[in-house]
Amino acid sequence: MLRGDGFELRPWTVEDGPAFFELWGDPAVIWWGPAADRAQSDLILRRFLERTAALPPGLGFFAIVRAGQIEGNVFLAPAPFAPGVELGYHLRLRAQGQGLATRAAACLLEHAFAQLHLPRVYAAVHAANPRSTGVLSRLGFEALGPVEHAGMPHQLYVLSAPSPGSSPGASSP
Ligand SMILES: CC(C)(COP(=O)(O)OP(=O)(O)OC[C@H]1O[C@@H](n2cnc3c(N)ncnc32)[C@H](O)[C@@H]1OP(=O)(O)O)[C@@H](O)C(=O)NCCC(=O)NCCS
Predict the structure, then answer these.
(1) How far is the CA of 155 from the centre of ligand 1 (A)?
(2) Measuring from atom 15 of ligand 1, which residue has the nearest CA?
(3) How far is the CA of 167 from the centre of ligand 1 (A)?
(4) Which of 36, 121, 132, 136 suits 147 as a labelling partner, its CA being 20 to 30 A distant?
(5) In the chain, how many domains are there?
């Protein structure tokens, strides 16, 4: 488990099925294709659990938990669109607009750079997803150019590990 300022990141579990469906079944959040029902949501959750179990500790899919409530998902996993690890994040609507995605991602990135010694982390953002672009720019990611992801045009971004001695973490919003 990773602790941030007012939240925790912990691996998802099978017991999180109802909360995961509230996130992954919401078309306002999973706008490219939400889970149609609880059964489909459970299958997606199980895939996340299997992928997390197969990755080194610190990589995988994490529930963002604040005051005992699951508010979203943040992950680091091998990227299908770049030679490395990708960052992704999804927040319940009620938790958006508060800086939580940026803080949760910064917490996971700090662990990835300081403990796992990843040299860099990639992210792909759909051309029409300015809120996601906002998260990446607050974190200090740099745009590399267009990339195809999930059959849709995206922009590829990268963040390199901080050089020794510099202070990692998100820039202020
Ligand atoms: C992408 C997504 C996570 C971004 O959520 P978000 O709430 O905009 O991002 P943050 O949690 O970092 O919050 C930043 C916003 O909170 C505001 N904010 C308020 N209080 C803040 C605080 N204390 N600290 C930082 N930001 C704060 C910021 O000004 C910013 O708002 P603005 O964009 O209107 O300027 C969210 O839109 C989402 O889940 N989208 C659907 C899933 C998705 O597309 N994921 C990415 C592709 S995988």
Answers:
(1) 18
(2) 97
(3) 22
(4) 36
(5) 1
- CA separation for the pair 57, 128 (Å, rounded): 33
Residues 85-114 as b/e (b if ≥16 CB within 10 A, e otherwise) read bbbbbbbbeebeeebbbbbbbbbbbbbbbe
Q: Is pTM, for the whole model, over 0.90?
A: yes
Residue predicted with more confidence, 171 or 51 = 51
Residue 69 placed within a domain? yes
SS3 134: helix
Q: Which of 22, 29, 102 best tests ligand 1's pocket when mutated (most atoms within 8 Å of CB)?
A: 102
Q: 9: which strand partners?
A: 2, 64
Question: 171 lies in a domain?
Answer: no
Residue type, 100: L
**94-105 pLDDT, tens per residue?**
999 999 999 999
Give the number of the atom of ligand 1 that is nearest the alpha carbon of residue 103: 12
Task: Report the mean per-residue pLDDT for the chain.
Answer: 94
Residues 6+ positions from 28 with CB-CB distance below 8 Å: 93
User: Quick check: is 172 in a domain?
Assistant: no
Domain harbouring 125, CATH code: 3.40.630.30
Q: Ligand 1: which atom is nearest the Cα of residue 32?
A: 44
CA-nearest residue, atom 19 of ligand 1:
98
131 falls within a domain: yes
